[in-house]
Amino acid sequence: MKKFTASITALTAVFAILLSAQAVFAHHDAPEIREHHYGFDYIPQKGGYTGDTDITSVLEAKKLGGSVYVRLKGKIASKLGKETYLFKDNTGTVKIEIDDDDWNGVKAGPKDTVIIEGEMEREQGGVFVEVEKIELAN
Questions:
Q1: Left if phi > 0, otherwise alpha if psi is -120 to 50, otherwise beta: which for 65?
Q2: What pLDDT, in 10s, does the model give residues 106-123?
């Protein structure tokens, strides 16, 4: 019986230590986990690189060919199809594809200057940009 009592006392002490450690290391100001993605819980973060990144002209981008990531600044001149548009800057035009979920709330028309980022792709009729990010230019 003494061994059983000693075991219960030891377990109680360990449990008390764990509870106090949890209180010490708890971060009450940390945001709660709000999303579940590919089997992992994570805290969404906002932000990213804010330094200068190179803007490529449409003319230069067309010369680069496929599978190259580009950043273009210009205007969406017109809508060509469901998710395809004609993008233009002062050097030329290129077809772009923007999936509905890549707009992220951005609303832009032919008068708005935007910055798009995406991958140049080759197709039989030429090249196009598969847009991954769009934002209004400052």
A1: left
A2: 999 999 999 999 999 988
